[in-house]
Design goal:
The protein is an alpha/beta fold. It has one domain. The longest helix is centred in the middle third of the chain and has 16 residues.
């Protein structure tokens, strides 16, 4: 029997895991889905830009793979989900409760 492939889904926070985890596990029912929570948007961290984002995401994937003893061929797919909530809203348009 063939070993299940890993689908690594990189998200910003735990609410993304809650919202997407079960659905993605159903979509990839023949594979093992792992949701990796970044605790923030990696694309907006200091020092991250369009020239180095691919290598930074690659580092995240390598770190996960090494921690789980996975090789490149163990992965079926890597999905990085980002959103734009608040990304284009000027500070003066944000109101607290």
């Amino acid at each position: 029997m063939a070993r299940k492939k890993v689908v690594l889904v990189i998200v910003e926070g735990s609410s993304d895991d809650t919202a997407l985890g079960i659905g993605l596990s159903q979509v990839f029912d023949k594979d093992k889905v792992y949701i990796h929570i970044m605790h923030g948007d990696i694309t907006t961290k200091n020092g991250i830009n369009s020239a180095n984002i691919v290598s930074k995401i690659g580092n995240v994937v390598r770190t996960y793979a090494n921690s789980q003893h996975y090789k490149a061929n163990d992965f079926k797919q890597i999905i990085h989900i980002v959103d734009t909530d608040g990304a284009f809203i000027p500070d003066e348009k944000i109101f607290g409760e």
